[in-house]
Amino acid sequence: MSGIASTTQLRMSLVRWALVTIPSILLLGIASGRLANSGEQNAWYAALVKPEITPPGWFIGLTWTVLYMLMGLALAMILHARGARGRGTALGLFAVQLLANLAWSPLFFAAHQITLALGLLGAIWLLANATTFAFGRIRPLAAWLMVPYLMWLTIAGALNFQLDQLNPNAEELAPGTFSAQIEVVRP
Q1: Which of 58, 73, 121, 124 places its Cα 20 to 30 Å from the Cα of 109?
Q2: How far is CA 185 from CA 83, 141, 161, 171, 182, in A?
Q3: Considering the domain boundaries, does residue 177 fall inside one?
């Protein structure tokens, strides 16, 4: 018996990685959004003035589902590339950009910090680019699987910027909350 795996064994190893990474990344993304009460059902977000180019909520949800699946597959390909030079760096970059990505929804939807969320989005974009280039040195297809994510981050950045411009006092907007101040009306 030789120590070299067959093509079928190698493929199955990649499939096993993908069966772990794709659902894991997808579930982390869903959890981040749910915990932050992201989307159109969020009263604070619903009260914001939105740019004309804002896509409907269902489209954003579908887009993130596909992107998280592509990211999970790209990650599986890099995890499968045992012994590849730069693999540790690529995995580290992926982990950092994913953690930053998962922090965006709570910062934006729960903390109502549009400007800070825009800054975080810029950092995510830079980290995702670095991750894509690191992936490309190991598995070019893994890098190409990250390209739709980079494109969506660019669109999300433009939307976040426009929301920041259209809603300069968004951090103070809190629909559904009650004020302790009493307004005295004199006849």
Answers
A1: 73
A2: 75, 67, 39, 28, 9
A3: no
Q: Is residue 64 part of a domain?
A: yes
Q: What is the CATH number of the domain that holds 19?
A: 1.20.1260.100
**49 Cβ neighbours under 8 A, 6+ residues apart:** 163, 166, 167
**Residue 138 · residue 84 · CB < 8 Å:** yes
Residue 64 is encoded by which pair of tokens? 């993130």
pLDDT tens digits along 54-111: 999 999 999 999 999 999 999 999 999 988 999 999 999 999 999 999 999 999 999 9
For residue 137, give the amino acid letter: R
Distance (Å, whole) CA 13 – CA 15: 5
Q: Output the pLDDT for position 1.
A: 44
Number of domains in the chain: 1
At 16, which helix (H) or strand (E)? helix 7-35
What string of DSSP letters covers 98-157?
HHHHHHHHIIIIIT--HHHHHHHHHHHHHHHHHHHHHHHHH-HHHHHHHHHHHHHHHHHH
Domain-located, residue 86: yes
Query: Mind listing the pLDDT tens digit for each residue in 1-14?
Result: 455 766 676 667 88
d(CA 148, CA 134): 16
- In a domain, residue 178? The reply is no
Structural domain of residue 51, as residue ranges? 7-169
User: Can you give the length of the chain in residues?
Assistant: 187
